Amino acid sequence: MKAAVFHGIEDIRIEEREIPKIDDDGILIKVSYCAICGTDVRIYFNGQDNVIPPRITGHEISGVIDSIGKNVQGYKIGDKVVVVPQIACGKCFECLRGNSNMCNSADVIGYGLDGGFAEYMAVPGKAVEHGNVIKLEKDQDLKFSCIAEPLSCVINGHKNLNIKLGDDVLIVGAGPIGTMHALLSKAQGATRVILADIEENRLNLAHELGTDFVIDTSKTDLYEEVNEITKGQGVDVGIAACSVPSVQSQVLSVIKKGGKALFFAGLPKGKSINPIDTNIIHYKEISLYGSFGSTITQHITALKLINSKVINADRLITTILPIDKLVDGIKMVRRGEGLKIAIKMS
Hints:
Elements: E1 2-8, E2 11-16, E3 27-35, H1 38-46, E4 60-68, E5 80-83, E6 86-87, H2 93-96, E7 107-108, E8 120-123, H3 125-130, E9 133-135, H4 142-145, H5 148-157, E10 168-172, H6 176-187, E11 192-197, H7 200-209, E12 213-216, H8 222-229, E13 235-240, H9 245-253, E14 255-263, H10 278-283, E15 287-290, H11 296-307, H12 313-316, E16 317-322, H13 326-335, E17 340-344
């Protein structure tokens, strides 16, 4: 099979490899699509402690079951599926209270296990047993379904925000994640969604998808623009959806009294100690949340939103490339070209 193998920083090689073997409890998937995540970009350019080369990365995966172990039940060859990459232990305190995304000893496909930037991928029995392989309806499109993973992370981020009818929501970061935050906010009833970024092309794409206001922060002041839109009241919810430390402070500065803030994006290594004015949180009684990863249930919800076109995946996926062009796709993501880029395997 053809596979894109990460051998080190800025070193991904397209190689011929043996199709992986599965045990009696595992499933072999013929990968159809694997979308490029910002984490894949970070791994390529900077490496990551839990990705030991050589490794096949990629964790936003859709495909078709090619073969199953003799002990596997509930699946058959030819089933369309997506794969939840985080394989939780199911036994730790966090797993037992329903927070499998916070599992203390999870394995992750595309990090510690070979992922989806290959024509075939083995899913271990532990993942099959825990429900990490989600069957799709016959009419669900494999191309669109590959972005269920990032959308599920956005859904997880919204779990404490309780966005409702009449709310004003600000998202800073107009990449695919920020745009998903905007679309999900509208679906939850937000009256005005404001999206800010320095990339004009991405702002234009987001505006076409239904964002009410866009702010190019390379040309204008975020605080002034948001206050003009909200007549000085500020927004009910602010979401930092890009890895720029100053954005966290900017988001806090425009939230109204009693509002909510979400720090969705992690900050780069060495820049995560970030000074913010905590008096804003104190005196305005702002609730501040973080979020990380997602659960299997949230993946299922994401698939429902995609299949019903509540979230229009057709407009979010702007580029399809073959596996030989994976590095080109990674560089496109880094340059902020388009929104979501997916690799088509077969």
